[in-house]
Amino acid sequence: MQKIYFKYLLLFILLFYFKPISFGQIQINLTGAWDFTIPNNDIFEAGLDFSGTYSSNANEVTVSITQQGFFANFFNYNWRVDIRKLDIDWHSDIQLYARRTGNGNPFFLYGNIIGGTSYQQLTTSNQIFFSGNRSRLDIPIQYEIRNVSVLIPAKTYETTIIYTVTEL
Amino acid sequence: MAFCFINLTISQAQVDQDQHDVMFTIPEIALLDIEPTSSTITLTLEAPIAGGAPVTVSTDGTDNSKWLNYSSSVSPSATTRNISAHITSGSVPSGISLKLQASAYTGIGAGVLGTPIGLITLNNSPQNIITGIGGAYTGDGSTNGHQLTFTLSLENYGLLDNDNSTTIEVTFTITD
To answer: Residues A20, A71: contact at Cβ < 8 Å?
Structure first.
């Protein structure tokens, strides 16, 4: 009897430390978006340029890393989030940055999350944003736009931010 | 069991994507300012220094202490902007005229800065003094932008009226 309990305990421990890759499917879900207009009083004195740098709320977008299938979220697995932008109508002088402002919430068991806490400029190529292990919810993301000037034509610019999670 | 895990690890790429949009709007801006302040300037005709001598326009009849600063953000489809000037209060005493000239741009600004028209005679109708302003900023304060030179000019000696002082308000407008 003790042997059976030991086997189950061992299996339980193994599953919480190692997740069979066939079990579940990693998924990433974003909540929010950023729509920003420079306020009319940004230039407080004629002759000046725009202040040029604008930040979103610290949790403008939240990212959740989970497994498809509820029980798969209890397993331990490693993941990495890459980020890039896909310009719809963007100006090459406008720089877009992103950073992670918090750790989010563990799904059930605490895991790690590292990287991405400093602003990094987004390009059209994937770059590593942050990584971690175990399922994690509501990781807050903040954006910043820099290098804006009156020299750039006045209009609405649009880009798509693409997050890719890879189970490692 | 372990062999099974390794096989599945190689055969399945565990990747997922999600995305959202970022929208960023730069508004159209047109701001104009006179530096160092919008305070009054005084122009004076020189009284004759001897009987029979004419009234003259001396250095007191000219002022170049004012500068025009502007910030302009324009849409891609918009035409350039102009700055006009006209008298909005008071009138120039008879026999003389008030002329205005904006200098070429100088300063720490950047962009598509305007081009001065040249010397104009101010009246009650707006006249362009600077044209062709695109997305640009001049820099703030004196020595940035376009220096303004106001000058009194004798037009008809016979219409001069001694001791006819008056205050004139000149308004500058930046328009599309």
So the answer is: no
Can you give the residue ranges of every domain in chain A? 2-167
Within 8 A by CB and 6+ apart from B56, the residues are B45, B46, B48, B154
CA-wise closest residue to B91 among B164, B37, B172 = B164
CB–CB contact B19 A143 (8 Å): no
Please state the ipTM of this predicted complex.
Answer: 0.88
Instruction: Work out how many CB contacts closer than 8 A connect A with B.
Output: 175
Which of B15, B26, B33, B81 is the best mutation test for A, with the most CBs of A within 10 A? B26
Read off the pLDDT of residues B23-66 as tens digits, 9 standing for 90 and up.
999 999 999 999 998 789 999 888 777 888 777 777 778 999 99
Confidence of residue B5 (pLDDT cuts 50, 70, 90): very low
Q: Is B132 part of a structural domain of the chain?
A: yes
Domain that holds residue B102: 26-175
Say how many domains are in chain B.
1
The per-residue pLDDT for B8 is: 38
Question: Who among B18, B74, B75 is closest to A28 (CB)?
Answer: B18
CB half-sphere exposure, B124, CA atoms < 13 A: 4
The reply to whether B110 falls in a domain is yes
Q: Does the distance separating the beta carbons of A165 and B24 come in below 8 Å? A: no
Distance CA B25, CA B28 (A): 10
| A-chain residue closest to B68, CA distance | A47
Average pLDDT over residues B88-96: 92
Cα gap B75→B133, rounded to integer Å: 12
B161 touches chain A (CB under 8 A): no
Q: What distance in Å separates residue A85's CA from the closest CA in chain B? A: 9
Q: Which residue of B has its CA nearest to A38?
A: B26
Checking if the pLDDT of A14 tops 60, the result is no
- Nearest CB partner across the interface for B135, out of A54, A145, A153: A153
CATH of the domain at B75: 2.60.40
Q: Is A65 left (phi over 0), alpha (psi -120 to 50) or beta?
A: beta
